[in-house]
From TrEMBL:
The keyword Membrane applies. Gene3D superfamilies: Anti-sigma factor, zinc-finger domain. GO terms for molecular function: sigma factor antagonist activity. This is Regulator of SigK. Keywords: Cell membrane, Membrane, Transcription, Transcription regulation, Transmembrane, Transmembrane helix. It is a single-pass membrane protein. The keyword Transmembrane helix applies.
Length: 255
């Protein structure tokens, strides 16, 4: 954006430009009349003319000698040729103010753009980092699943689940791990979820983690299965519980 384009020429600009020559008596009669008419309703120009006239008078009083007439003529001619920056009408911003306001607007837009770019970059970096973390977790789980399935003592345990849900367990006592796959779990009321348990022969069941609320399928690698004699699924409030609230299904683990 070119701030200069914000300045629109007005019909009175030519009169404003004559102020300097008017004070030095370097205008024609029509120009003088135009300036005098204009200063009647333009306080800014009237004040400027008064100040310039006083300044010219002081300069004249301090002169030690009268300059040659040809010098005066050259000065007057130069004053008439040199276009002065017109002062603004009352209440109208000056060109400098308009220009600065223009640049202020540009700076504000630039700052907003930079801020938006930084925010977008931060969001994208956060998404990339989260995706990388999720990918790393998925790859780690895939390696663990492959290790259990490839174990020499891997055993497929039938899992009969209610309500049409399907489940499969692969147990490796040697690796002390099991892989459980659950699909088609029935939808639960809001604020509730499924939680997995390893149930020992004696003692309290050990939590193997809760599913996210609304999740109806999962594949998990369960560690520390040595003392467990059964695998259980309970329904719990969101976030899970320290002990099973309601056992929904239970699958015996063969040794």
């Amino acid at each position: 954006m070119n701030p200069g384009r914000l300045i629109r020429r007005r019909p009175t600009d030519d009169v404003h430009a004559l102020v300097g020559a008017y004070v030095l008596d370097g205008v024609t009669d029509p120009e003088r009349r135009a300036v005098e008419r204009h200063r009647l309703h333009c306080t800014t120009c009237d004040t400027e003319i008064a100040e310039l006239t006083a300044t010219a008078a002081r300069l004249a009083d301090s002169a030690t000698r009268t300059p040659p007439d040809r010098l005066r003529q050259r000065v007057l001619a130069e004053a008439r040729r040199t276009r002065q920056e017109p002062p603004p009408a009352r209440g109208e911003p000056t060109a400098h103010r308009i220009a600065w306001h223009g640049w202020d607007a540009v700076a504000a837009v630039v700052l907003l753009v930079v801020f938006a770019v930084l925010v977008t970059y931060g969001v994208q970096q956060s998404r990339v980092a989260r995706a990388r973390q999720q990918n790393a977790v998925a790859q780690s789980q895939q390696r663990d699943v492959a290790a259990v399935l490839a174990a020499p003592d891997a055993e497929l345990v039938p899992a009969a689940l209610p309500d049409g849900a399907r489940g499969r367990l692969v147990v490796s006592r040697g690796a002390d791990r099991a892989v459980v796959t659950l699909t088609g779990l029935p939808a639960l009321p809001g604020g509730h979820t499924y939680q997995l348990w390893l149930v020992p022969g004696t003692g309290r069941p050990a939590s193997a983690g809760a599913l996210d609320v609304g999740s109806r399928s999962t594949t998990r690698v369960l560690s520390g299965i040595a003392p467990a004699t059964a695998f259980a699924i309970s329904t719990e409030p969101a976030g899970g519980s320290p002990t099973p609230t309601h056992i929904w299904a239970s699958v015996p683990l063969t040794g």
